[in-house]
Amino acid sequence: MLREVTAVRYLEPLRTGGSVPGVVEADDLGTYVLKFTGSAQGRKALVAEVVVGELARRLGLRVPELVLAHFDPAVGAHEPHQEVQDLLRRSAGLNLGMDYLPGARDVTPDTELDVDPVEAGEIVWLDALTANVDRTVHSSNLMVWPTFGVHEPKLWLIDHGAALVFHHRWDAASVLDTAEKAYDVRHHALGRYGPDVRRADAKLAPLVTEDLLREITAEVPDAWLADEPGFDGPDELRAAYVTYLAARARASAAWLPTDFPSRAELDAEAERRARATEAARPAWLKRVPNLHGKPDPRPAKRYP
Ligand SMILES: Nc1ncnc2c1ncn2[C@@H]1O[C@H](COP(=O)(O)OP(=O)(O)O)[C@@H](O)[C@H]1O
Ligand SMILES: [Mg+2]
């Protein structure tokens, strides 16, 4: 089961993402990224974080530890921004925490990265299974860590809040039909690394059993599953996730992504974007060097 912690100090909002997660310290002396129930993305995003994050972990991919975090808005009363205050006030109670990786960096198109096609294939396969629309070149939700010390930097998966798109349409009579729906990989963050999705499919599809999915959905707190129209309580809703994902795993031949863009297409797209960005710069800005799109030359220096 996911561990439970209590937030004791709100450190700062993380504004690079759309949901404005917060960095907090908890009563176990750990530091966590908190995804709030009161964010615009709502409770379903947290359900997706648990289901997909824990599934990824069971399939052997790297995901920082997830915890259930009790949060009292009084802990962040010093936060000066009104919109953050509103978010914290809406989020009293149980929220999702992810172990904070100190010094980790987001993967961007400029990150110099050597990704093994086998690992890339497994990540793309997971994203295709769970219909994750938020692992794109410009919003990778992948981090590189550690960025210092003796260990090799590794890829870590974060932010699965935009996966499981089907759970926004439970009311559709044909929701199960979408279990065979193809997954659009054209803008996937790892498309350029030659993902070996066939190998991933052979290894991972048999592991996604109903038993495994039942264990994983049991980790989602009842409070995030209550009141879904058309379902008689959290357990019935859990069963719907199990049925859908098991059906999709069985149907992998129908959605297995293979049409990755070629290297030349990727280079042409990057070139087109760079030209569009340059053209959009106002004249006065053209006099100063364009540092955007180049790797940040400064060393990482945000340690909590
Ligand atoms: N576990 C973590 N360790 C370190 N930084 C993180 C972690 N999780 C998220 N971040 C940072 O916060 C940003 C926003 O988090 P994310 O989970 O992607 O939220 P959102 O749902 O708002 O996109 C990430 O892009 C990353 O820079
Ligand atoms: Mg994100």
Automatic annotation (TrEMBL):
Indicate, by first and last residue, each region the UniProt record lists as having compositional bias (Basic and acidic residues).
Answer: 267-278, 293-304
| Record Pfam families | HipA_2
The residue ranges of the HipA-like kinase domain are: 12-252
**Top-level taxon:** Bacteria
Segments carrying the region annotation (Disordered) are: 267-304
Question: Under what name is this protein listed?
Answer: HipA-like kinase domain-containing protein
Organism whose genome encodes this protein = Streptomyces longispororuber
